[in-house]
UniProtKB/TrEMBL annotation:
Pathway: Cofactor biosynthesis; tetrahydrofolate biosynthesis; 4-aminobenzoate from chorismate: step 1/2
Keyword match Nucleotide-binding: no
Region (Disordered): 201-228, 312-333, 554-589, 717-745
Residue ranges of domain Glutamine amidotransferase in the record: 15-83, 132-169
Domain Anthranilate synthase component I N-terminal stretches: 258-425
Biological process per Gene Ontology, one example term: 4-aminobenzoate biosynthetic process
Organism placement in taxonomy: Eukaryota, Fungi, Dikarya, Ascomycota, Pezizomycotina
Molecular-function annotations in GO: 4-amino-4-deoxychorismate synthase activity
SUPFAM superfamilies: ADC synthase, Class I glutamine amidotransferase-like
PANTHER family: AMINOBENZOATE/ANTHRANILATE SYNTHASE, AMINODEOXYCHORISMATE SYNTHASE
Keyword Transferase: yes
Family: In the C-terminal section; belongs to the anthranilate synthase component I family.
Protein name: aminodeoxychorismate synthase
Length: 874
């Protein structure tokens, strides 16, 4: 950055420059000033800007604050530029003397090129005022600097005139030196000038897959041979139409009941569960209207990707008849054999361009007369890990080569059910190329539901209302949809509870030490905010499978089993005497039922996919995109208070959360996700807006501060934005002659991962620091990733994976039980037991105003919800 200020003294070499924050500090240092630490950082703080008016320094002399009314601006810094103002401190009472002689607007004698333009005075508890320089100009060169952030959502709009004034000054300086002005620019920045030839962007060629069939390690499937009587996996599920039928949903039937009725015997699951839908009528969160259940995921085409691999794995289970479970997939039950294809891509492409190409071949355009209100018709459903997001911001995950687990797993779902909790209906739907097969499947699924024991007390369904081509039947209204259902009971109340579960929670003292380390980084100016997390490990005997659904699947390792085990532990035999017992742990499905009852959330989920099991009660929507309008919505969540006897109302929570520390946490992430959205939506307030800022919402066990950031995708791709390397490619045609289509939900997802509410700001540097603090072996994995969908119309909805627990099939903990003579090898008794390992992540945003004790309490508060599902097992 320092080389910007060394362009030269002659007019041919100079360019007008505006430095902001670090750029401002760099300019002052170049002029001879120094940078020091503030007494306390001001990240996310909003302060009035004391600036030079036109009488002090006319606009003609380069004062970009001339004619600007008073305004407040957002500060994001822990360092300040010192030009001799008593090392940033003025004794109380000296303010009038400073102002009377206009000393604050004069260039210091030892820094003649620095012209002060703006200040902030911060009163400190120690009894002094800290004067902080906010704006400067270079006396001889067209250089300006601002310490505050004019782009922040909380910088008042009256202050935007400063940027317009700077642009006018830059244009004036260029015109005076014969620079050529380009008039065909946006009206808000008229007079943009060019002196250098514009570099043309090289159009990227479209992505065309190279199929590399093979069998993964551990798979029983033989490599595909060519010619293959079936189309390649890349070419399956094309040319499908949409078919559906709607049923009234009995009021007592809940999402888990539907899954158990329709998916008995299945191995893979994707359930997006708005478990808080009915509790929302009693004053809680109101976003949970729909739940989405992927059906027959076992038979679905699945796409998997591991960071750094430069290849996508397409896999599909085979049926008992030995064929791929493609088409309408009625040729038999699936087994553990797979057809597999590897799709390699070069450095000109990314995982997102492969997914975009796959999706665009199956896109189902929305007709002009479409009245389908359901959020999902079929398409991608699945998860991404936190480490996938790191790859997108060029942060290499540490020790990621210890295993071969995917960082992205999407199923292409062609059969699904959507529950409308507001209308009291369930829509069964399928994407199919065969109308008769689709109608038969819809009728069979509806009859299966109606015949299930749980449906007995419900209303009958009219199976004649099957429609095609996107025309959903939404005329059935549930007569009792305002009656709150009973909590979901455990699936098997008499299921044995294990007393052999071992829970390893984070060490409180170590966590507080990490909080202090975060604050050291923040004070040094390396970050504004660091979202520190830690993981709790739960080891327990392997569960028997998904109770009531399919026994044994929890021990199915799938294609990723590599025999890896966690380091052995020697444990006292009296503590582990029960390991020899034949009883087993409650299933992951039972854990899911328990969690959704204890902590109903709008974005809950249960996923069994690619060797991963996820049980989530997430309250946080990450990203929602409309395929028809191109509108994007993000809901960053920062600021948490636990419900208690002293905090039980919204008003009490607002009093606690509407304080500078909590509001600053949320504001910093709001500005971060605004930046992410601008990278795909373009510039200007019409592209990205904040319709809701710092609102406190009520959830089942906590109150949360939420903001809403909305973006509008442009009709054509925006100009390239520095630092945004994602490319999207149309699968067909000459890329040199056609522009890519409008960015869609995949583009937005690629630009916004990892979730800003789980990283801190600025994102890349914060993630690098967090890797160091959380440990080289502490992968977040599914925690801090996202879960959701993008359907064939381009509608997408993703939640942040928090308040959750997860495990991987290939992760085992081997316990060695020692006998009485543990020091005598001849008398040593060994007993081995393989345990499954569950992970629960929790943490919070650390800022300059945080306290180690407060951050520790917040982490344990967030941990309490998901950890509670194990409370009867220890």
């Amino acid at each position: 950055m320092k080389h910007v200020w060394d362009l030269g003294d002659d007019d041919d070499s100079l360019l007008p420059v505006l430095g902001i924050c670090l750029g401002f500090q760099s300019l002052v240092v170049h002029c001879g000033g120094v940078v020091r630490k503030l007494s306390t950082g001001l990240h996310g703080m909003i302060r009035p800007i004391d600036h030079a008016d036109n009488d002090v320094l006319p606009l003609s002399e380069g004062n970009i604050f001339a004619g600007v009314p008073e305004f407040k601006a957002t500060l994001y810094h822990s360092l300040f530029a010192d030009i001799g103002q008593q090392q940033g401190r003025l004794e109380a009472g000296s303010e009038q003397e400073w102002a009377r002689g206009n000393a604050k607007w004069n260039s210091p004698a030892h820094l003649p090129d620095v012209v002060p333009l703006a200040w902030v005075t911060e009163r400190r508890d120690e009894g002094f005022d800290e004067r902080i320089l906010m704006g400067v100009k270079h006396r001889r060169k067209p250089f300006w600097g601002l310490q505050y952030h004019p782009e922040s959502v909380c910088t008042e709009s009256t202050g935007h005139q400063v940027i317009k004034n700077w642009f006018a000054q830059a244009a004036r300086w260029n015109r005076a030196r014969g620079r050529i002005a380009k008039s065909e620019v946006d009206g808000s920045l008229e007079g943009l000038t060019y002196n250098l030839p514009k570099k043309s962007e090289k159009a990227s060629r479209p992505f065309l897959p190279t199929l590399q069939p093979r069998s993964p390690p551990g798979s029983l499937a033989a490599p595909l041979s060519h010619p293959n009587p079936q189309p390649s996996l890349w070419d399956q599920d094309l040319g499908c139409e949409y078919f559906s039928t709607s049923l009234e949903l009995p009021n007592h039937v809940e999402v888990p009941d539907i899954v158990e009725s329709l998916q008995a015997g299945r191995r893979d699951f994707v359930v997006l569960d708005s478990a808080s839908a009915k509790t929302s009528r009693t004053g809680l969160d109101v976003k949970g209207r729909y739940s989405i259940i992927a059906l027959d995921v076992d038979k679905a085409l699945q796409l998997e990707y591991r960071t750094g691999s430069r290849q996508v794995t397409l896999r599909r289970r085979r049926t008992d008849s030995g064929t791929s479970a493609a088409g309408d997939r009625e040729s038999g039950e699936v087994n553990d054999q797979y057809d597999v294809e590897l799709i390699g891509f070069d450095e000109e492409h990314t995982i997102w361009s492969v997914l975009a190409s796959f999706w665009s071949r199956r896109e189902h355009p929305i007709p002009a007369n479409d009245d389908t209100t359901h959020p999902f018709l079929g398409g991608f459903m699945g998860f991404t890990t936190y480490e996938l997001g790191l790859e997108g911001i060029q942060v290499k995950p540490l020790n990621h080569d210890r295993h071969s687990r995917p960082d992205l797993s999407f199923a292409w779902v062609t059969r699904s059910a959507v529950v409308d909790h507001m209308e009291g209906t369930i829509c069964l739907q399928t994407l199919s190329s065969d109308e008769h097969s689709a109608a038969a499947w819809l009728e069979q699924a509806a009859q299966t539901l109606q015949a299930s024991p749980v449906w007995t007390d419900g209303l009958g369904a009219d199976f004649s209302k099957k429609t095609a081509g996107g025309d959903l039947d939404r005329r059935l209204l549930h007569a009792a949809n305002t009656v709150q259902a009973q909590p979901t009971p455990p699936l098997t109340p008499d299921e044995k509870r294990s007393a052999r579960t071992h829970i390893q929670i984070p060490d409180a003292d170590e966590y507080e030490a990490k909080v202090r380390q975060c604050q050291e980084y923040i004070a040094a100016g390396d970050s504004y905010e660091l979202c520190l997390t830690d993981q709790t490990l739960i080891t327990r005997p392997k569960s028997p499978g998904i109770v009531g659904l399919v026994p044994g699947t929890q021990q199915h390792h799938g294609p990723y089993h590599n025999g890896s085990k966690r380091p052995q532990q020697a444990i006292d035999s009296t503590a582990c005497a029960s390991l020899s017992s034949s009883s087993s742990s409650p299933s992951s499905w039972s854990l899911y039922r328990t969690l959704r009852t204890r902590n109903p959330a709008p974005f809950g989920s249960y996923i069994r996919l690619s060797g991963a099991t996820l049980v989530s009660s997430s309250p946080e929507r990450f990203l929602q995109v409309s395929g028809s309008t191109g509108t994007c919505s993000m809901r960053p969540m920062k600021g948490t208070v636990k419900k208690s006897s002293t905090v039980c109302t919204l008003a009490q929570a607002e009093e606690i959360l509407h304080v500078p520390k909590e509001e600053a946490e949320n504001l910093m992430i709001v500005d971060l996700v605004r930046h992410d959205l601008h990278s795909v939506c373009g510039v200007g307030k019409e592209a990205v807006a904040v319709p809701q800022l710092l609102k406190v919402e009520e959830y089942a066990s906590v109150f949360q501060m939420i903001s809403v950031v909305e973006g509008q995708l442009p009709p054509s791709p925006p100009l390239p934005v520095a630092g945004y390397h994602h490319r999207r490619h149309h699968p067909q045609g000459d890329s040199q002659q056609q522009l890519p289509p409008r960015p869609n939900g995949l583009d937005v997802l690629a630009a916004t991962l990892p979730p800003g509410s789980m990283t801190g700001a600025p994102k890349k540097r914060s993630c690098e620091i967090l890797q160091h603090l959380e440990g080289p072996s502490a992968e977040r994995s599914l925690y801090s990733g996202v879960v959701g969908y993008m359907d064939v119309r381009g509608h997408s909805d993703w939640s942040v994976t928090i308040r959750s627990l997860f495990r991987w099939d290939d992760e085992e903990d081997v316990v060695v039980v020692l006998g009485e003579h543990e020091n005598d090898e001849q008398h040593q008794q060994h007993q081995h037991s393989a345990l499954e390992v569950w992970h629960i992540g929790a943490g919070g945003a650390v800022t300059a105003l945080s306290t180690p004790h407060g951050e520790r309490d917040e982490m344990f508060t967030k941990l309490k919800g998901p950890l509670g599902v194990f409370e009867h097992q220890v």
